[in-house]
Design a protein that fits this description.
Chain lengths: ~325, ~290, ~400
Amino acid sequence: MSILRGVAIRIGAHPVLDFWVFFAVFPFILPNRTMATQVLIFGLLAMGFNLLYGYTGLLSFGHAAYYGLGAYGCGIALAKLHVGSLWLGLAAGLGLAGLGGLVIGFFCLRRRGIYFAMLTLAFAQLLYFIAFHLADWTGGDDGLRGIPQLTLGLGPWQYSIETTLAFYYFAYVLVGLAVGALKRILDSPFGAVLRAIRENTSRAVACGYDVNRVKHLSFVFSACFAGLAGSLDTLRLTVVPVESLYWTTSGQTVMMTLLGGAGTFFGPFVGAATFLVLEERLSRVLEAWPIVIGAIFSAFVLFLPKGIWGTLTGGIYGRQSA
Amino acid sequence: MPELSTLVAQVFTGLVLGMIYVLLAIGLSLIFGLMTVVNFAHGALYMLGAYFGVFLLTYTKSFWIALIVAPLMVGVVGLLIERFLIRRLYGRSPDDALLLTFGLSLILVEGVKVFWGKIGLTLDPPRALAGAVDLGFMTFPAYRLFLVAVIAAVLIALYFFLGRTNIGLIIRAGSRDPLMVRALGIDLGRVWLVVFGIGTALAGLAGILAGPMRGAYAEMGVTMVIESFVVVVVGGMGSLLGAVVAGLLIGQVVGLTTLFVPKLAEIMVFLVMAVVLLVRPSGLFGEAGLME
Amino acid sequence: MDRRSFLATTAAGAAALSFPTVLRAQSKDPLRIGFPLPLTGPFGALAADQQRGATLAMDELNAKGGVLGRKVEVLFRDDQLKPAVGAQRTKELIENDKVQFVVGGLAAHVQMAINEQTKKSKVLFISVSQSDEISAKPDTSPLTFHEALNPTITSRAVGNWIAQNLGKKWWIIYADYAWGKQNNAVLTDTLAKQGGTLLGSTPYPLGSAEFSAHLPKIQAAKPEVLVSMTPGADNIAFLKQINSFGMKKQMKIAQPLVWLPQLKEGGGELYGDVYGGTSFYWEIEDTIPSAKKYVDTYRKKHNAPPGDYGAYAFSGVMEIARGCELAKSTDSEAVAAALRKSPVYDHYKGKQWWRACDNKSFQDLWITRGREPGKVKGEWGFVDVVAKIPANEELDRTCKEKGHA
């Protein structure tokens, strides 16, 4: 165990580099290669959530909203507006999610604690029902279809990303860049203020920080990460289910982050991988597998609140019990 | 524009729905006010109430026994959850209890399918309440009138229990200032246990009461818990009067939008909450600063 | 248990769970069919029926020595009734489990997501639940087959029958989502063609089953027939409320579909005198030999009769096998071509056929009437079959209307 912990701590020292190295070989270690991309995408979504919950101390129960906005933004741009370029699709998704974060964050951040959590949930559900009934644009409950499979254009070159492995490395680069961006955010003075807010909001206010603005910015960043995850999933599945916006997506994101370790850099990815592998394996052998998932999750909340990665790294990045 | 009788009928339907919200929200609010625990498993316990009701009805053949015993059984489940699980989380962030009960609700929803099968079950009202009552200007199902009466009676009983008994006094004091109550030598741990038991039993009662109108099925509590949370937040966290007023209000809002613009029925609940929270941040009857 | 041993146990458990694939990959080369279905979630009972039907087909095929001399293996995966999960499981089935075909899906939206993946991988997919879009452009493909009925066929067939036999003054009540809206549109159109009058049409939010406010209005309008599209748990709530208003005595209640698990749940008390359509009801075994055979085998194994969704699944798997034998190949294109070339089959309820333009299966359906309490036969005999609507391509939209030039 102490070896594991040593390794974990060393990984914590150069997280971005380690991300590039580890995920370069990830599809080959996983029993199920198809799942590798899913882990990247849901890990990114959980990472966005973690910026808000783990690093800023704000429990959002509505991250489905930004994931879904990203997915629909990309999907609608490609299927309805026929923008014809994968990059424009991604930009549309990211933009819509960021805009959603800006507007919804403005309202939600006027309240704190449980009220904040409930407001985020309420706005996400609001978007879900809007998408459900706005079938001309969203495909309604049948989901948005007709999303073309595009090639990846880099300057004059076009690459096919149709195979699972090709798409994985495409997503790997984008998620890697997002991970690098998160690291920059956390290492900046802004990141230090985030943690100050998490530890003691009133003190951060007393120090003269514009806490609300900082939180709002963190909210928007968080939404952008979630939106990128949603856009990538649209490109991967070429369909946007309306359930992307449903609260169960938010609940799953919370579970992944908690399993991996909230407030730790790699926790979200560890959690996403653990959750998805468990779900896939368990559901093959046991019909009532959600009971097991629920029990494991409850056990983590009770006994391992720092999650897998937080426990391994001994709380170096760990969220202190606050 | 619908006719007046339709409107009246829908107002009454909204009242029935609102009463069920009230029962669920009061339980949530009690637990929250005293223990600052957000019980996400409340919807699953509501569902469990309906299932226990079916179970008891099958074996005792008496709706009345089921009506009384099923909530008690749910209350016992609640006691066990508090004593052996939630108690470990006191002193930690309130988020943790929310997350734990979220996990528990997954277990309960899937668990009832293992015990009672994947097909939903029906729960019949007693013969005496099966038909419709002619109110002169309209007919209305007798069972729904009965449901409103039962819940009203329970609310009155609860009012006297909290307002006029010693334990009620301690509960109210405990939610105001737990430190002070402890300093007076009162074992709050036991009070918490009792409150969690009562709160969950009320959820169970809501479940068995709703059963004869909707049947019992594993997912029946999933949306109810979110809507009940909305009621609690609108009414003001920890405020019982708030839960009653907000529950009835949300019932009417849902009922009337279903009639006029069905597309908006699901959205209205959240719109009302967003508006209330932005205009009156601590809810209609909440105290400012609680649980922020 | 302390934290470390807890972690260690979890890790060991995870390792143990990942072994089976490694072992399975070593075995000989069977014919693999992937089958995503919502084993968890609100449609669990219907999915269980699907799983039984497909398993029965697999056992039957293997008892005869398999297909092209290869053992048939159906791999079931829980899609949780979520399209994204259905899509993911389908990709895994195709890429990791190397299935040659996919059958399955139990809701329009999950089917669509599955279909997106099978199209990309050029794998033949037989969809076995209701949807209008799955066999129409742009969603469909030459490798997409649709075994189940769809809202257009069901509502036209049932609507015509209601208008001719129960009355032409209707009120429609429907859940406000794709399936409900499609049926409402088709029924409204059908009624107009029959020269009937639609007194009113009421949408309600799916899943919030409160009808009592609408019921007095409907009572006052005195329709001859109240047609309802209230799926799943809503159906039970709807019929309960109809009963408590005493409306069954005032008008006929009809719905395009009735489902066996719900019949079991509601019994004669709720479903007595309620008319409905179905693609399969087990008592047709009395007159149809292939149905008799299917019901007998199913009953022997499960001690209960099969439902309609299990039968679709059974037939879907059997069609894959028939296509392989015809094509002497497991290549999706070849099998699809073979099925279009010899489109007629009968696995469980009489003659069915694939229409060449859209790979849509045409089949008989039945109108049933619920037996009153006391008249229910045994544990599962809930309805009388009152009419058979023979398979007819005119009941669906034309090839042209569906975008097939």
